[in-house]
Amino acid sequence: MGSDPLATFHQPTRAWFETTFAMPTRAQELAWPAIAAGESALVLAPTGSGKTLAAFLAAIDRLMFPVAGAPPPQNPHTRVLYVSPLKALAVDVERNLRAPLVGIVRQAQRLGVTYREPTVAIRTGDTPSRERARYQREPADIFITTPESLYLVLTSLARSALTKVETVIVDEIHAVVPSKRGSHLAISLERLEELRGPDAPRLQRIGLSATQRPLDEIARFLGGFDDAGASRPVRILDAGRRKALELRVEVPVEDMARLGEPAEIPSGPVTAVQRASIWPAIHPRLLELIRSHRSTLIFVNSRRLAERLAAALNELAGEELVHAHHGSIAREQRLRIEDDLKSGRLPALVATSSLELGIDMGAIDLVIQVESPPSVASGMQRIGRAGHRIDEPSTGVIVPKYRGDLLACAAIVEGMQTGSVEPLRYPRNPLDIVAQQVVAMAAMDDWKVDDVERVVRRAAPFAELPRSAFEGVLDMLSGRYPSDEFAELRPRVVWDRTAGVVRSREGAKVVAISNGGTIPDRGLYGVFLAGAEKGKGRVGELDEEMVFETKEGDVFLLGASSWRVEEITTDRVLVSPAPGVPGRMPFWHGENPGRPLEFGRAIGALARRMRTLPPDDAMAELQTKHALAEGAARNLLQYLRDQEAATGAVPDDKTIVVERYLDDMGDWRVCVLSHFGAKVHAPWAMAIGAIVRERTDDEPDILWTDDGIVIRFPGTDQPPAVDLLLPDPDRVSDLVQRQLGMGGGGARQANLGAPTTALFASHFRENAARALLLPRRRPGQRAPLWQQRKRAGDLLSVAARYEAFPIVLETYRECLQDVFDMPALIELLAGIRSRAIRVITVDTRTPSPFAASLLFNYVANFIYEGDAPLAERRAQALTVDPAQLRALLGEVELRELLDPDAVSELELQLQQLTRERAARHPDGVHEMLLRPPKTRAAIATRLASRCRLDFPMRSSRAIPIRWRRF
């Protein structure tokens, strides 16, 4: 092969590349020889280094110029499968494939080389049904899709097109590995491997990402395991030369300590007092940066802030200068906004993580990050959007919102400069994913139980799946738990234990297809143009609670455009454009990302180092190593000095400060100041709540954030003892586990106002939906979130009586392993016990600077307390004692208000005596036989025509019994 990375390509491919690019990148030099040799490979390379082309060019060359003498394919089949975590990224790749395909064809024609032009198809959730049907009839050589759409293809007749797949490319692999979406994809890839047959050569798997660590963990996930339990070989190609970054942290105000104070001496009504805010200073600076650059991307951490910032910039500019871009804007709107930026018609976008991955946004001059990114990896992805070529630096400006945020911004710059991305870990044994994939597999074929387990265990997240847990899932799916207690807990498969076979039940395939995937249903309303054709005119989506607080005629902003509400139906909001009309700002719940432990430690280490350096050296280091402007560095050092003056200590990676003070109501509030992030603070707060209730019988109010924990002790005269806040590291796991089960107490998740029970209940609801236990009643239509919660609560009340119910076990596992970082908490508490980490307790008259930002979240949390949206709170108003209410109001009996005919009709339906409820297939007869005994005559009246009682007996699912009277 020599040292020439292009040596493996045919002459037209090589000629096109050499006329288009100066030379291969390091990623391409490493990838092409390995791909040509048929190896699976994991490629780590910076943004803009040509990773996707490195993977695709070898595949295109193989498709266009088959091996000499090889017979042409008789039937078209897909040979290259590209999986993208984003629908928009998949569309970009399809568009960018055209250039090499057209270019290589022209070179082949010029050189007189025989070629075969590959076909390309794309399938995502936005693909029209006619295009999906066309792929089934005419499979393309290259198939571009998402994890969810791949699952749907494998669970349909279209899967026959995938039997000859040779190469799978998983782009932006870091985005799926740490989530259940990745676990779901891992089983889909093993189903694909099985579909290809035992004689097919091993599937070549190529993973691509710019931010992935540790590489051996990602490689294990990508390759999976063979039938003998050994991990398949994956070659790690580390081309991760750090891309040059030109970063600057700016503070647009002179003194951040004055934020929140009255802007001037107030006079007149109290409500007219204006307080100092950083936003009036941020907006002009952002506008100045936008106008001094050709194209600018502004990243924020929430959809609401994206909308608010875009509207404010347009108002200040006096023209439509900026649009918002996020996941709640419809695909058509997003594509239009992206094209406007690429073509130069729009100079800037305000985006969330929707543009964080490798979507082609053209030549971006500058990236602005308002507020610290949630992680180093996220920051590198976002800033990497600028200078989207390997030979030019990425230029970024980071603007903090408050003084605590300034400290995080300084720490993240160092991490980005050194490439210290946080390690990823794939979930272990998520049982809800097993349940969904087993139902989908059985819907297509009858499976031996051992073969199902073998395929599932080949996926890396399930390599150590216990047999008992696997059989527990089969028990749940086959009807072990009584469905008469909860109607939706109906069997999805038939488990023939005698033959060791799993078969599908009637209707299970529809449920698996219409409820597939892992992205939870957040109860969002679709927003559509009034009068548009069905399936068209989608504008975006709104949070359910905002819709309940909106009425017809209201105007709101979405995508920085104004829309007037024309009608609100049961599942959508119909709107018309309202250009130039001021609109209400939308909001969405549950979108605040948590801080990784490693980032928290970096923040603490920076705080500790700055306090050990002389002031001049600290200023110099902040300006050079951490890229702070002079004013930002001065504000940060003053922030640390103010904290030390208030408490005598500053929390860092080796110090935790416990601050106690009396609030305005005379109650003690305790702030545990720590940088270690919510994944550590959440279980710690739950353990504190358990200890306080055990020892004092008090019910404390507790909140946790990335920056610490706040506890309010009502009715206590003495300052709370510090030992209440420091659980025993040997006991903390049991305390947290018990709190998850009991729920009790006032620990509340930051910015959600949800009690501990809501944390467990929300994850149980999502897990039950993934396991197909809470299917949509009407596919394609939204179900109100409060109704979903009600159904999940009913299911949980049934499931809680069975200690081995798989989804209850999975919810515990998810909370303890994925949501919380229990090993880090145990390590932290052990460090406190061994004195490796200091705990300093101080009593103050007013909150310190660090505690002030923490308490702001505490106050906001209780102002807006209650996870349930307005509709659910209305429904809860019905939970009163009806007897006492009737006595109080003097009303008639409830039964007098019911229609006798309706009651009779319902009774017949429940007894299966109506035509639509009659048993129509063997599964229906089987379910009827599982209920209380009936005579043959009674059963016969409940059978539809051509349905016979002996259907289940033919498959050994029921046996006749003769009773002899003695």
Strand order of the largest sheet: 3-4-2-5-6-1-7
- Our Rg estimate from Cα atoms comes to 30 Å
In terms of per-residue confidence, which ranges show pLDDT below 50 for 5 or more consecutive residues?
265-273, 743-756, 860-882
The proportion of strand residues reads 5-15%
Mean pLDDT: 83
In DSSP terms (H or I, runs of 4 or more residues), the helix count works out at 34
Broad shape = globular
Number of strands: 28
Helix residue percentage? 40-55%
Distance between the termini: 88 Å
Largest sheet: 7 strands, parallel
Secondary-structure-based class equals alpha/beta
Can you walk me through this structure?
The protein is of the alpha/beta class and 966 residues long. It has 34 helices and 28 strands.
In short:
The chain is an alpha/beta fold and 966 residues long. It has 34 helices and 28 strands.
